[in-house]
Amino acid sequence: MLITAGIDIGSGRTKALLLGEDGQILGSAAIRTRANFDAVAREALEQALASARLSMDDIAYTAATGLGRYSITFRDVQVTDITCAARGAQFLFPDTLYVLDMGAQSTRAIRLKEGGKVRDFHTNEKCAAGSGSFLERAAKYLEISVDSLGSRSMESSTPRPISSVCAVLAESEIINHVSEGVPVNDVVRGLHESLAERALTQLKKIGLNGSVTFVGGVAVQQGMVEACRRKFGVEVLVPKDPVAVTALGAAVLARQRATRRMAGAGTSSRS
In what order do the strands lie in the sheet with 77-78? Predict the structure, then answer.
């Protein structure tokens, strides 16, 4: 059985995923990213292997992606996270042509060609106000857990918008809202609405004209998903495990590489 691994080292979490020959996800794991990228990648992969009752020897090919992909010593190939996010989304939703990848460090709008290849993309890496790390800081100011943001947003009917596109100024807005007695749930929904508006701007820059597959850590927040659905005016698809989609894409690409390598070896042996 051909088993491949995808490892995605993000700024917040490191994800590992194992893919079987038939396209079945055999195991996965996600742990907090640490400074030693090679060690944290190995730990995540070992946890994924343990969940699937497999060992390192069972892996035919390993693809690494994310900010620490070059540091992984046991990888067979490194691939950009934009390419992997696109391929993972297309693997789950074959007809998808637009992907919104919102993680801790950045938000990316990606347009696909048929087959899951990247046609165009736009990213907001210059400012944290459009990413998951901003939501984490906002939760700290609001004195609530990050895990509760999604449900609190859903409980609001009167969002209080956050107009600043600068993270520092936006944080000042949040503090002002709290000091004025604005309900926390309304502030949270305002945050989600603001992020959705910025994401829509990015998607329009790549020619949004169809459904969007929403992936990345922020996609687990239901309030953020609903904000995107209200703002975008198109269908928003969310995978069962949006956090693991980029690692999945890496594993899919690893399977393609491994298959070609095996085919090449077979040709050589017959010649």
Answer: 25-32, 13-19, 4-9, 61-66, 77-78
Asked whether 199 and 215 are in contact (CB, 8 A), the reply is no
Q: Which residue stretches of 93-236 are H helix?
A: 132-142, 149-154, 167-179, 184-205, 222-232
Cα radius of gyration rounded to whole Å, the chain: 20
What is the reported pLDDT for 271? 45
Q: Helix-strand-coil percent breakdown of the chain, rounded to 5?
A: 50, 20, 30
Determine the pLDDT at residue 137.
84
CA distance 47 to 15: 10
Contact of 145 with 155, CB cutoff 8 Å: no
**The dihedral of CA 167, 169, 171, 173: what is its sign?**
negative
Residues of the chain with pLDDT under 70: 125-130, 164-167, 265-271
Identify the structural domains of the chain with CATH numbers, from first to last. Answer: 1-81+243-271 (3.30.420.40), 94-238 (3.30.420.40)
